[in-house]
Amino acid sequence: MSKSIDQVFVNAKQWLLSWLAGSPDWLIQVASILINVFMLLAVFLTLFALISVLERKILARMQNRYGPNRVGPFGLFQPIADGIKMLIKEDIVPARADKIVHFLAPVLIAAVAILTLAVIPYGRNMTPFTIDGGILFFFAVGSATELAVFMAGWASNNKFSMLGAMRAIAQMFSYELPLIITVLPVVMVVGSLMPDRIVSAQAGYTFGLVPRWFVFTPWGGVAFILFFVSGLVESNRTPFDVPEGESEIVAGHMTEYSGFKYATFFMAEYIGMFAVSGLSATLFLGGWHAAVRVLEIVPSYVWFFLKLSGLLFVYIWIRGTLPRTRIDQMMNFAWKFMLPMAFTCVIAAAVWHYAGRGLRGWLWSLFVIVMVYSALSILLDTRRKFGPRVYRFAE
Amino acid sequence: MSNAAFVIIAIFTLAAALAAATLRKLMHAALSFAVALVGLAALFFLLGAEFVGLALVFIYIGAVAVLIVFTILLTRRDVGKDRGFNWAGVLIALAVFCGLTWSILKTQSLSIVAPHIRALTVKRIGEALMTGYVWPLQCVGLLLTAALIGALILVMEEKR
């Protein structure tokens, strides 16, 4: 019974495809792809609508206000109202803007964000796009975001846009390194770039109690935190929303966008957030595996989305608590702390593997990480480095 | 199916490359160059070399295209100006094209039926890189690190 609930979507797709039985192979392939694409868009655009209102609600709760509560029950229909508002707004294109590139930038950024969702396993046998180098696909496609942001900033012909795009590219490039290098230990330990293999490598429980997720190994735990922080930066979320800091450069690369194009940027940002959270759940939190053996009757996709929403809640929580960082501090942090720690994770994972993947390996890899961490904290001496800013050109 | 896909991708790539060579605005040319690279990556996908295709997208779209675009932005003041037709460029392009065609026609592998090889998985590429080609790989890594340090020294703030 639980098995059939677990596979209900897979079976439904098989049933739909069985209507096409007897037709040529390529037609069935195309139909299968279309079903996957449709499901992906339906699920994640709904999630986007839901999370946009939930975020406002949670932030309001943290700031002691009510948040949206006028439209529908508990304000749940707010995204529909927002969508209609965005659609009927005037679409303003600046006279001096590069019309074509200005139009293409939001299209590209949304397409890229949605494409990265395709390689994540959402449940048992539920990967929309199975490919040998799935993880590489994620980062390869995701790297086009930088070009899209640049296009938006350049085509707007506005100095706020250009500054925002410059900042965005600087921070995305810097944090892409730790983001990718923290994935390396997982790929090394599993020996595959396929998300499905990575998930199945995290099956089972130690002592029948603790799930064998990578986050419970020292290198995995540190890599998870580093990955999460880099993910925050990549999705331009609040402590690192320097590229669109409202108090400094209006809205960064989105300054000259209005109406539905602005909404597209907004959507791409959220979908990018879903993709990074989904990938970190896949890599470190055991993907769709259950946390407790007893609860394995709960369908796998429910587990995945539970983990995803947990991570999304932390994103919102951080947004509600932390102020914006300064760009020079951010860059220092990326190159002087994140990158060495990411490399340490790779070494610690190797130590863990060669010390037998047991308790001994666990302690040894913890030792490596603690050593490097304390060495780094002495070397960097944060009190001296992050002192008050010296203004060379102002004053 | 695969032939039709090849023709479509080839036309797409060539159109983008032509646009990159002829468009007036330098920034547009750079962006169409990126589009041409996407076409090339699609060709690799069609041939079953997923890893090479992904690496192409990763390196060329994610890094090289952004680098080119930034170079244009930071160095040119007269981006919109028409610079006239570049005959030397045509000559060089023709020479490269003739050279490539000549060398392709000269090779003997055109007449030999390709041997059946195992599917080119990421794992096999990794194994080859870490065993047979480990020295070239390390040398490239060293070179890139040296380039990175050199770039850092170039932009380092001068102490007064």
Summarize the structure in words.
The complex is a heterodimer of chains A (395) and B (160). Chain A is mostly helical and 395 residues long. Chain A folds into two domains: 1-81, no CATH class; 89-385, no CATH class. Chain A is built from 17 helices and two strands. Chain A has a two-stranded antiparallel ribbon. In chain A, helix 5 packs parallel to helix 13. Chain A is globular. The relative contact order of chain A is 0.12. Chain B has 160 residues and is mostly helical. Chain B has two domains: 1-79, no CATH class; 119-160. Chain B is built from six helices and no strands. At the A-B interface, helix 6, helix 7 and helix 8 of A face helix 2 and helix 3 of B.
Anisotropy-based shape of chain B? globular
Q: Tell me about the largest β-sheet of chain A.
A: 2 strands, antiparallel
Number of strands of chain B: 0
**What is the total number of structural domains of chain A?**
2
Largest interface, C-beta closer than 8 angstroms, per-chain residues: A-B, 25 and 23 residues
- β-sheet strand percentage of chain B: under 5%
Oligomer: heterodimer
Give the tags.
heterodimer, A: 395 residues, mainly alpha, two-stranded antiparallel sheet, 17 helices, 2 strands, 67% helix, 1% strand, globular, B: 160 residues, 74% helix
Quick take:
The complex is a heterodimer of chains A (395) and B (160). With 395 residues, chain A is mainly alpha-helical.
Detail the topology: elements first, then pairings.
The complex is a heterodimer of chains A (395) and B (160).
Chain A: H1 2-6, H2 8-18, H3 25-62, H4 78-88, H5 99-116, H6 134-142, H7 144-155, H8 159-181, H9 184-190, H10 195-200, E1 205-206, E2 210-211, H11 218-234, H12 246-249, H13 259-284, H14 300-321, H15 327-354, H16 359-380, H17 382-385
Antiparallel strand pairs in A: 1-2
Helix pairs in contact in A: 3-13, 3-14, 4-13, 5-6, 5-7, 5-13, 7-8, 8-11, 8-15, 9-15, 11-13, 11-15, 13-14, 15-16
Chain B: H1 2-22, H2 26-46, H3 50-75, H4 87-106, H5 122-130, H6 134-155
